């Protein structure tokens, strides 16, 4: 049965989508059967994996609101072992449409339930908010990865997210765990980056992944080619960092990794 991991932080620009698509691709390279779900109306994971969101007829939105089966919308990517559930702009309206539905916080859990035994990992890219879609993702997930950028105000809003996670653990998903806090956009040359790493590790200790994602040009370029960085610049620092993260997660979950 697949492990469902949400990538969440209500703060924008912290590397959620970059992490979702590149972690999923790296897990696939390690030969774990992986599904990435784009639950962000901006649909950047969808376009970053080579699909045009404007041409998407059905997305995770239709599954949650209209009851369309997720199996009918899963798309193959160019990578073996990696599948995609796409998003499009209509997901913005899902929160309004779902407001009066019974068990509205559990719609994504019900949708994913149809396929979770087909994959080793299911990665959910959440939108930069703590709205109903993100709450759905956290309710469906076994664990959550929180990307934190190595910049000023890095810890801003983190308390609010952790509080939301605690509420979800209490009311909706008692099994939800924090997989880890992931430091992103690290620049070894900047004293501030090093201070943030130190501060986050002091605050959160073992919750912080050993892997740190560097600020890297190729990580920014690869989505414009519709490719994860491991298919765009396999030997680069960005690709190796996400491969290390995938290995670290596999090890933490007691899974055999492929070298």
TrEMBL record:
Residues 3-178 form the AAA domain. It holds the Pfam family AAA_31. Gene3D superfamilies: P-loop containing nucleotide triphosphate hydrolases. PANTHER family: P-LOOP CONTAINING NUCLEOSIDE TRIPHOSPHATE HYDROLASE, PARA FAMILY PROTEIN CT_582. This is Chromosome partitioning protein ParA. It comes from Echinicola pacifica.
């Amino acid at each position: 049965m697949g492990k469902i991991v949400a990538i969440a932080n209500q703060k924008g620009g912290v590397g959620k989508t970059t992490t979702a698509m590149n972690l999923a691709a790296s897990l696939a390279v390690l030969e774990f059967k992986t599904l990435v779900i784009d639950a962000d109306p901006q649909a950047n994971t969808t376009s970053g994996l080579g699909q045009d969101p404007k041409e998407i007829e059905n997305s995770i939105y239709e599954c949650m609101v209209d009851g369309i089966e997720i199996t009918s919308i899963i798309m193959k990517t160019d990578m073996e072992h990696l599948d995609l559930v796409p998003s499009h702009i209509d997901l913005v309206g899902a929160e309004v449409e779902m407001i009066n539905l019974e068990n509205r916080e559990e719609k994504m859990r019900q949708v994913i339930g149809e396929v979770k035994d087909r994959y080793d990992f299911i990665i959910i890219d959440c939108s930069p908010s703590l709205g109903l879609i993100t709450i759905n993702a956290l309710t469906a997930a076994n664990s959550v990865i929180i990307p934190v950028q190595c910049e000023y105000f890095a810890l801003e809003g983190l308390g609010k997210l952790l509080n939301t996670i605690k509420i979800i653990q209490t009311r909706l998903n008692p099994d939800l765990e924090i997989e880890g806090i992931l430091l992103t956009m690290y620049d070894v040359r900047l004293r501030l980056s090093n201070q943030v790493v130190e501060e986050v590790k002091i605050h959160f200790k073992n919750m912080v992944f050993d892997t740190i994602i560097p600020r890297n040009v190729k990580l920014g370029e690869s989505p414009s080619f519709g490719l994860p960085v491991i298919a765009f610049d396999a030997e680069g620092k960005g690709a190796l960092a996400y491969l290390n993260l995938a290995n670290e997660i596999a090890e933490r979950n007691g899974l055999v990794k492929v070298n």
